[in-house]
């Protein structure tokens, strides 16, 4: 089975990049591709619980929870979480903290890496 790592760098509702990344992850799962998500920089906010959708027609927290329920791992870089003031308790259940070395391993083990 092919593996694709998706790196999300953008704030959840700044634009539609994070939404498109999570939608793509769902479609890849439907095509029997193993997907892993790494949240980096402002993208760590995608892993935050109780997000405000700010008038958007979609909710990234709900989409992330659906992917987590399908065993898609979500890793948020711990340094970025600290800089953004997001504690472990504020993360969606199932999102784990990781380091740059974890991202390096994901990249090494993946057939492709996509960045949003």
Task: Describe the structure concisely.
The chain is an alpha/beta fold and 116 residues long. 34% of the residues lie in helices and 21% in strands.
Q: What does this protein look like?
A:
Pfam families: DsrE. By secondary structure, this protein is α/β, with parallel strands linked by helices. The protein has a single domain, classed as Hypothetical Protein Ychn, Chain: A, CATH 3.40.1260.10. The protein is built from four helices and five strands. It has a five-stranded parallel beta sheet with strand order 4-3-2-1-5, sandwiched between helices. Helix 1 links the parallel strand 1 and strand 2. Helix 1 packs parallel to helix 2. The longest helix has 14 residues. It is globular, with a radius of gyration of 13 Å. About 30% of the residues are buried.
Ordered list of secondary-structure elements with their pairings:
Layout: E1 3-8, H1 17-30, E2 34-39, H2 60-69, E3 74-77, H3 78-83, E4 95-98, H4 100-109, E5 112-115
Parallel strand pairs: 1-2, 1-5, 2-3, 3-4
Helix pairs in contact: 1-2
Q: Could you say what the CATH topology is called? A: Hypothetical Protein Ychn, Chain: A
Strand content: 15-25%
Name of the level-1 CATH class: Alpha Beta
Please give the domain count: 1
N-to-C terminal Cα separation, in Å? 23 Å
| Element-level helix/strand string | EHEHEHEHE
Helix content: 25-40%
How would you classify the helix and strand content by structural class? Answer: alpha/beta
Please state the second-level CATH architecture.
3-Layer(aba) Sandwich
Please give the oligomerization state of what you see. single chain
Q: Write down the overall geometry.
A: globular
Number of strands: 5
Low-confidence stretches: none
Largest sheet: 5 strands, parallel
Pfam families: DsrE
GO cellular component, one term: cytosol
InterPro entries: DsrEFH-like, Sulphur_relay_DsrE/F-like
């Amino acid at each position: 089975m092919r593996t694709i790592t998706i790196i999300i760098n953008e704030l959840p509702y700044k634009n539609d990049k994070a939404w498109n990344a999570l939608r793509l992850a769902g479609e890849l799962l439907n095509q029997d591709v193993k997907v892993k998500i790494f949240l980096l920089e402002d993208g760590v906010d995608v892993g935050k619980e109780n997000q405000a959708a700010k008038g958007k027609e979609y909710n990234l927290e709900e989409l992330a929870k659906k992917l987590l329920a399908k065993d898609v791992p979500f890793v948020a870089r711990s340094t970025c979480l600290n800089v953004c003031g997001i504690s472990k308790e504020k993360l969606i259940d199932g999102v784990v903290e990781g380091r740059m070395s974890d991202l390096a391993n994901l990249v090494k083990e993946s057939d492709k890496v996509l960045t949003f």
